Amino acid sequence: MNIPRKLKLLAFGACLAAAALPASAEEYPKFDYMPGKELAIPHVSGDAKFSNTYQYWKDEKTLEAAKKSGKMSHEMNYKDFRWAIKSFDAESAIDIGRGYYDEKNAKGQSCASCHGAEGKKLKGIYANYPAYNKRLKRVVTVPTQIKTCATERLGFDWKENTRQNTLIDFFVGSLSDGKVVKIDATSPGPIKASYERGRDLFFKRGGHFNFACASCHTPPATGKYLRGQRPTTFFGDAAQYPIYHFPYTLPGDDFEYVFTLQHQIKSCQILSRIYPGEEGSPAMTDIEVFLKASANGYKMSIPVSEYNMDTSYLD
Questions:
Q1: Does the global pTM surpass 0.85?
Q2: Contact 239, 298 (CB under 8 A)
Q3: Among 302, 26, 1, 39, residue whose Cα is nearest residue 173
Q4: Residue 243's beta-bridge partner residues?
Q5: How confident is the model at residue 230 (pLDDT cuts 50, 70, 90)?
Q6: H, E, C per residue of 154-208
Q7: Cβ neighbours around 22 below 10 Å, total
Q8: What are the start-end ranges of the E strands in the chain?
Q9: DSSP assignment letter at 109
């Protein structure tokens, strides 16, 4: 019998598809973890177990010495191109955040009513967040604290993923510029538990590509160019957030190109075909605790630009 070529191709494709399908549900791939989870510690120096670059960027002195010696950016785990150089363009976004901080409700109250003009009482606090809120009985980030204060005291609906919250967060973050990150993730308690959950989520595979956060942010992916990105190890980078992300935004954003740490996590989840988490949720908060604690001992540097890259030392 003469079978039409089109039917032959369809039959052949069906055979290939059948051969590719698992024989039973037990054979479907299960979520697992990227290697290295057991090596993570809540301090920036933990990077020494993940890459051989920590000695080049652990502080300003070593970074400058590495540049002068001719080390290339990828040889320094791309840690050279952001935190040491402030972003002048980001200052305008901080000014907008300062304006929201001073915005008064119908009773004449604002964030400044409790926290002082120019955020006087908030200086340095960002280096110690996320923190456990005893009244809320949960670990909160600064954006979640902003949402809570705005809702309860001012009557403003400024939840985490809103323009006002994000830009106030940027302003408050800038008040901790130069402070050393200090998150106690070793003493038994809510922060330690959150850190461990966040660590597990960071290394857990998921999504269409079966990626984990660690797929890009641990060797051998780090120090490479991936789809125009420059992934680094996860140690220290949280000390630069919130960050000025011009010219990149997520669809629908109106945040003056500012990314909070959870907004950055959400962006990475989308790029990795992982269902994005809700900013402010317990799971996203846990990941932030893990990342922020992985920057313990590192100086905060805000504002800097995501795409800044100083190559003058190569001239």
A1: yes
A2: yes
A3: 302
A4: 259
A5: confident
A6: HCCCCCCCCHHHHHHHHHHHHCCCCCECCCCCCCCCHHHHHHHHHHHHHHECECC
A7: 9
A8: 131-133, 138-140, 243-244, 258-259
A9: -
